[in-house]
Design brief:
This protein is 35% helix and 17% strand. The chain has helices spanning 17-25, 35-39, 59-62, 65-70, 72-87, 93-102, 118-122, 177-189, 208-214, 241-256; strands spanning 28-33, 107-112, 127-129, 132-139, 164-168, 192-196, 218-223, 235-238.
């Protein structure tokens, strides 16, 4: 499945030559992506998805362990609806550009706050999922992944008898320890850190570019709007990732030719 074409592909982004030079010389790159890059493919943010039948529900009802304990059927059906919507969405040029960038560097770690698998579907391999993955299901008691279950049950049960739940991080839950450790290690040992499509407000993910900065990395922000990270970044490129990243890749390819 080919990535979506960005509607403004003819819009040139001012990318400093110094930024291209630093990327061309780098061996270790870390990337953090947020909801912005998925939104460009048509995936609404969590709160933006609370429309239609779900418009009157509080997020605390649908995305907390307490909400699942109170009404597991409601929560399962909410995530089933989101999963069905995501299944028809394609990666966009930003996802494709990141997959191409991965092949250029000796070490490349893509850390994402998104749960939609679009990075993997675009061809990225070294993906660290901080908030889980909506396409996976796990046991609510044993925390183990389950691939086969009764599709007609809402929610289905694990062989142990407990309800199954989506393998995503809910409000009030800790991030997966191994994923967070990999993300922190990548941030602390990279030469270049790209923060893409994230508001830089959700911790501990928002701390990753600051860790990279403290370790001496060059921090590049790509976002349509200013964020709390903007004043700290060495380079801040204003624009959608699906527009900026392909041009960044083109400049890098030209510099290496």
């Amino acid at each position: 499945m080919s990535p979506l074409r960005h509607p403004k592909t003819d819009m040139a982004i001012d990318i400093p030559q110094e930024l291209i030079d630093k990327l061309a010389q780098a061996r270790r790159v870390a990337v953090l992506t947020g909801a912005g890059i998925s939104a460009e493919s048509g995936i609404p943010t969590f709160r933006d998805a609370l429309t239609g039948l779900w418009a009157n529900y509080d997020p605390q009802t649908l995305a907390t362990p307490e909400g699942f304990a109170r009404d597991p059927r409601l929560v399962w059906e909410w995530y089933a609806a989101r999963r069905a919507r995501i299944a028809d969405v394609r990666p966009n040029p930003g996802h494709a550009a990141l997959a191409a960038l991965e092949r250029r560097f000796e070490q490349f770690t893509l850390v994402t706050q998104n749960i939609d698998s679009l990075h993997q579907r675009a061809g990225s391999h070294e993906v660290v999922e901080l908030h889980g993955n909506i396409t996976r299901v796990k046991c609510s008691r044993e925390e183990i992944l389950v691939s086969q279950f009764a599709q007609d049950e809402s929610p289905p049960r694990c062989p142990c008898g407990a309800y199954l739940r989506p393998d995503v991080v809910w409000f009030g839950e800790m991030l997966p320890a191994d994923a967070l450790a990999r993300a922190e290690e990548a941030a602390e040992h990279c030469e270049i850190f790209l923060s893409i499509g994230t508001s830089a407000q959700v911790y501990p993910a928002a701390e990753l570019p600051l860790r990279a900065l403290s370790a001496g990395a060059t921090v590049i922000e790509i976002n349509p709007e200013r964020t709390s990270l903007t004043r700290h970044a060495h380079f801040s490129l204003r624009g959608a990732s699906g527009l900026v990243l392909p041009q960044l890749l083109d400049h890098l390819n030209a510099a290496s030719a």
